[in-house]
Design a protein that fits this description.
With 142 residues, the chain is α/β, with parallel strands linked by helices. The protein has a single domain (2-141), classed as 3-Layer(aba) Sandwich (Rossmann fold), CATH 3.40.50. The chain is built from five helices and five strands, in the order E-H-H-E-H-E-H-E-E-H. It has helices at 19-22, 27-41, 53-63, 82-91, 129-141, and strands spanning 2-7, 44-49, 69-73, 95-99, 121-124. Helix 2 (27-41) runs parallel beside helix 5 and helix 3 (53-63) packs parallel to helix 4. The N and C termini lie close together (8 Å). The relative contact order is 0.21. The mean pLDDT is 93.
Length: 142
C-alpha cells in the first residue's frame, strides 16, 4: 500500500502558528510521526507540503497510477478550493481528509469542506493521531 500524504498552507508553521489550536509540535515532528505510524501499518508514504494550491492540484493529478490512496490536509484550501475537489474527483483514488483541529467547533466558514466532498472520510480534532487514523482507514478500504 502506497499513500500520498498532502499538507496545505501554513502547516509548515506548526509549533509557531496558533499553538493553542494546533499544538507546539513542529512540522518535522509531524513528518516523523507519519513515517513511524505508516511503518507500523506496513504502508509506504510520500509526504509533501505546499502553500500553493496549484502544487497540491498537480500532486493529486500525478498520484494517478503511482499511489493507492491520498491522505490530505488541505488546511485553508479546505474551505475555498474547488480546484482541489475537482482534482480529487478526477483521479478517483480513495482519499481521506485530516484536520488537526476540530474545524466544526471553530468559525462557521470552516465548516464547509470542498475537499471533503471527494473524500471517503474526514478525521478532525485528533491532532497528529488523525493521520494514523486516516492511513489505517485507507489501508482497510483499499
Amino acid at each position: 500500500m502506497k499513500l500520498l500524504i498532502l499538507n496545505g498552507p501554513n502547516l509548515n508553521m506548526l509549533g509557531i502558528r496558533e499553538p493553542d489550536i494546533y499544538g507546539r509540535q513542529t512540522y518535522r515532528e509531524l513528518e516523523e510521526y507519519i513515517r513511524k505510524e505508516a511503518q507500523a501499518l506496513g504502508c509506504e508514504v510520500e509526504i509533501r507540503q505546499s502553500n500553493h494550491e496549484g502544487d497540491l492540484v498537480d500532486w493529486i493529478q500525478e498520484a494517478l497510477g503511482r499511489f493507492d490512496g491520498i491522505v490530505i490536509n488541505p488546511a485553508a484550501y479546505t474551505h475555498t478550493s474547488v480546484a482541489i475537489l475537482d482534482a480529487l474527483r478526477a483521479v478517483r483514488l480513495p482519499a481521506a481528509e485530516v484536520h488537526l483541529s476540530d474545524v466544526d467547533a471553530r468559525e462557521p466558514f470552516r465548516r464547509v469542506s470542498y475537499a471533503g466532498l471527494a473524500c471517503r472520510k474526514t478525521f478532525q480534532g485528533h491532532g497528529f493521531a488523525g493521520y494514523r487514523m486516516a492511513m489505517e482507514f485507507l489501508c482497510g478500504e483499499v
